[in-house]
Design brief:
single chain; 222 residues; mainly alpha; MetI-like fold; 9 helices; elongated
């Protein structure tokens, strides 16, 4: 415990800086993943067979291969086309990975809404896109929040793999510090504490959002 405390104190600045990088990496990649996931979800529920096939192939490949393999494949593929800093290349790779899971979350949430609501909106003169925007998506988003919250937490932990691209986030900082202090167990314990605090904060914020949406909807998420 003494060694863990010493490492925590001695490296507090480095780990705090790494925490900022982790939060930036996670937030940007998840925002991109939300966009990708929404587009792919619409492809998946489309009656256009080409769009459906694109979505199905993307989801199958991403969900069927390990993240670390995707990360390396996409990183080296990206830098062959355009030279990007490891941070941005890693961010894109994480976004592409998370996008497949978020796509399925959105697809399930959209399809869980009673089809009669779309028919009712159409009968009132709304276009399909307007009905989707004003009627279906607000309800679908509420239903998706718990699953999205879980995916955000997974995305936070997945960001640790970007350390293998040389990004000095929390795990990357732990890799560097343990190589110089020769105390890997204690150093990784400190890194784990930082991740645990972030996950607790994320979980709290998601639960508050769920409660807020539930209250605004009269105590029923629909």
């Amino acid at each position: 415990m003494v060694n863990i405390y010493q490492i925590f104190i001695q490296n507090i600045t480095a780990f705090l800086e790494a925490t900022v990088i982790t939060l930036k990496l996670t937030s940007i990649s998840l925002l991109l993943a939300m966009f990708i996931g929404l587009v792919i979800a619409f492809f998946k529920i489309s009656k256009n067979r080409i769009l459906y096939s694109i979505a199905q192939l993307y989801i199958t490949v991403i969900r069927g291969t390990p993240l670390i393999v995707q990360l390396m494949f996409l990183y080296f593929g990206i830098i062959k086309i355009v030279v990007l800093p490891a941070f941005w290349a890693g961010t894109l790779a994480l976004a592409i990975h998370a996008g497949a899971y978020i796509a399925e979350i959105f697809r399930g949430a959209i399809q869980s809404i009673n089809p009669g609501q779309m028919e009712a909106a159409r009968s009132l003169g709304m276009s399909r896109s307007l009905a989707m925007k004003r009627i279906i998506m607000p309800q679908a988003f509420k239903r998706a929040v718990p699953s999205l919250g879980n995916q955000f937490i997974i995305g936070l932990k997945d960001s640790s793999l970007v350390a293998y691209l040389g990004v000095p986030e929390i795990y990357g900082t732990a890799l560097y510090e343990q190589a110089s202090n020769f105390m890997p167990f204690e150093t990784y314990m400190v890194a784990g504490m930082y991740y645990l605090v972030l996950v607790i904060i994320f979980t709290y914020l998601v639960s508050k959002l769920e409660l807020k949406l539930d209250v605004e909807d009269g105590g029923r998420v629909s």
